[in-house]
Amino acid sequence: MKKILILLLFIGILASCSDDDDAGVDNDGSQIIGTWYLQSVRPIGGSNLLDTCNQDSFIQFNQDGSSVSEFYQSSDSECELESENTGNWTYEGGDNYTFFLPYLDERTTGNVNFISENSFILTTSDLPGFEVVFEK
Question: What's the rounded Cα separation, in Å, for the pair 87 and 103?
Fold first, then answer.
């Protein structure tokens, strides 16, 4: 009888353990794949510092780890391509990614917080006190 109780207790413990605790959570970094447009650069909790021309800027994250980015800037009342870059992006684990940020014109590592499947906020030590918002 004692062996049966121990066996039932052991089966109950195993049944309560589940491998789907992270169901629906993207743990491989692939949620970032796609084309993301720069929407705002702002002090945390503050107002957007970009104009509509800057918002044409984008990063395209490809499934193979490559990326393409373009940054647009107003010049003499014209919206012009200021810089473009091809490179690679890397998922560093957790919420951290490394990629070329068009607004900074350099590679950066930062925390990417997906606020929806079509929007994320980047914070990075390269822009202390600021957040960068991207939308698909």
Answer: 15
Determine the 3-state secondary structure of 2 from DSSP: helix
- The answer on pLDDT for 9 being more than 60 is no
CA-based Rg of the chain, rounded to a whole angstrom? Answer: 21
Q: Which strands sit side by side in the sheet containing 78-88, from one edge to the other?
A: 78-88, 66-75, 58-61, 34-43, 130-135, 119-124, 106-116, 96-101, 90-93
Q: Which residues contact 49 (CB under 8 A, 6 or more apart)?
A: 40, 41, 42
Residue in the structure block whose two tokens are 């009342």 = 77
* Over residues 93-103, mean pLDDT: 90
pLDDT above 90: percentage of residues in the chain: 71
